[in-house]
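Record type: monomer structure entry
Structure origin: computed from sequence
Chain ID: A
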Amino acid sequence: MESERWPMTLRIVTLLCSIVAMLPIGAVAATRAEVDKALAQAKQFLYSQQNAAGHWETAPPPKTYGGNKVESGQWGGMTAIAAYALLASGESHQNANLAKAIDFLKKAELQGVYALGMRMQVWYFLPQVNETKQLARADAQRLLSMVLTNGPGAGHYGYTPQFDKSNAYSHSRSQYGTLGIWAAAQMGMEIPNNYWALVERGWVNNQDPSGGWTYQHPRQTQMPLTPGMTAAGVASLFIASDYLYANQGLDCRGGRTNPAIDKGLDWISKHFDMVATSKRYERDFPVVTLYAIERIGVASGLKYLGTIDWYKKGSDWLIKTQKSNGSWTGSHTAVPTIADTAFGMLFLSRARAPLVMNKLDYSDEKDRAQAWNQRPRDAANLARWIGRSFERDLNWQIVNLRAPVDDLSDAPILYIAGSQTLDFSDADKAKLQMFVEQGGLILGHADCGSRAFADSFRKLIQDLFPACEFRELPANHLIFTNQFHRDTWKTKPSVLGLSNGVRELALLIPQADPGRFWHMQLVGGREEMWQLGANIFLYAVDRQNFRLREESHLVHADPKIKPTRTVNLARLEYASNWNPEPGGWRRLAAVLHNEDKLELSVRTVKLGEGKLAASEYPIAHLTGTAEAKLTEAQMAELRQYLAGGGTLIVDAAGGSSDFAAAIEPVLGQLVPDGRLRTLPESHAIYSAGGSALDPKSVKYRQQALRQLPGLQGPRLQGADSGHRLAIIYSREDLSAGLTGAPVDGVVGYEPDTATDLMRRIILNASASPATSAPSKNRP
């Protein structure tokens, strides 16, 4: 075994060069509604098969445990996998029916490796009380005692302890034994390193030269190489590597590779046509195979296997092949329907878990040092720790800049780590800028406190956003107080932030090197390093918006929809931070295109130069994050614009009190009766778009609710010019909300509400006879 082997399959970007050609922008897996429905039907099916005693076994406990049959050697396994799938799919352990199954598992005598491996997953999902830990420890000890330590099956498992004595083994059994031990390790149990070394050696020794695996060593069996066994091999190697090489990759001399994993992934990539397909082939277990594929995706963080989005293909196939009773049945009768249904549920539920962050692979074909991924388990372990802390299943992912820019937005955070000087092309910089403008947050991490990385990261971000500057985050910033408070930390890591006045666009951890502790899974005594990572994630999702994999806040104009009219809108430029969230208007334009067949043409107009005419721009938007000081010429132009029939929309970006305090007196001077009044819920604005706004549907961000408890209903204000509404004003943020991305610290409406309100404002203003020509298709 090579001393510097590491599961850094992350050179995989070189296999993904054709992604852009393969995938349309915004391509997603099955919709949330489709997955929710499939899981609900599958749960109903499982419960319908549960017997009166509360379990799923079809026979009494066997007198002799042996073999792979669920009535004998693997007795108890059906209940274990069904309970595991239900727990992983969000069912509470306190559910009356599920509680019966869990009680059965607590008392049942299980001896088979499949049954024990699945029962360990149940213990992992239960509250970690003493009883659960004791049960898990007993199962883990049995699994440790069952692993073969010599002969051709060394590192692998037989069906039961009785089979172990005959030295019989298979890779199918082995993956479940290792999964059980992995659950024990994640629950905090000490697993000897020699176990992981034995497992790694067993899988490496039995790998076919082509990179695939069959059921035993290729010389011992005539069975074919399969994607299921190959996925089991790759996933098992990832697990073992987590514990064997945690101390490697810390010296910032570049990443390490694992040839066996790389070859296995390459084999799967070339044979992915055998995955999630109704075509038949020898040793065909399609739903079980998907469960193994899901484990690779979650362990490696890879969004693609080859050029295939594995979750999209798998979820699409499962949705299409689910039976009317909610079950899945693979092509092989050796797998009971209950098990296949549970495996299908596990793929859909565990693979869809919200992503904490995307880690950026910024290598190129010449870069073999892997400087971007010297700590390959940093993001993986952090996501797992945050998930355990909040009792949520959370994932992470690897992305690259060869893929469509929308792929970066699968997660709220784009994590860029390294110790060398960054050097991005103009095209790559454009993608990074677009990601941030679409609501994303870039987190820079200087491995080993590298000054070269930190300096180049600062330059990169400031090149993208020249109007903004990095500064040291103050001690009372939400990133230091969001969930875990900085005052309780032994050390207080320095974090630099670059803000647009509304939210942090980028963060840099220049010296503390928390990635080292994330990678090594060192928590005790360094809790603040993990809590910092958790706070950053919670900041990026406004504490509560954990978006599932198949969800996206991005919106693109549907080319199949043909707009029936066009409205010009002027974004007003003046001498302050007038354009903090440009991405929001691109998104709103797409919403109006898709939902209302309205083409919103957004243009920048420099205020005070005499270019703002109501005849050309019936609607204008003014926002800011700081004190707004308008010149007399700018004020005069706004008065003329409003008198000519234009409509002015104003909001305090981010809920800025400085902007609001400065602009509110100005608004009163723009029209003869400049008194701002709160618009009643019966106002036409709230009915624009074809349906009346339900005041109860109006939602506010966490920061707004902290400052103004009890907020409810819309709070738009307006001022009239003659007999029409000329000014619409929101002291609460709308601009950041238009990006669709949640972030903490914003005093304003939640993104969905902000988007809906601005859409209604635009539709109402554009429907006015004074500002728009009549249209047969007017909403």
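Annotation 1: Residues 1-28, 769-779 have pLDDT under 50 and may be disordered.
Annotation 2: The longest strand covers residues 565-573.
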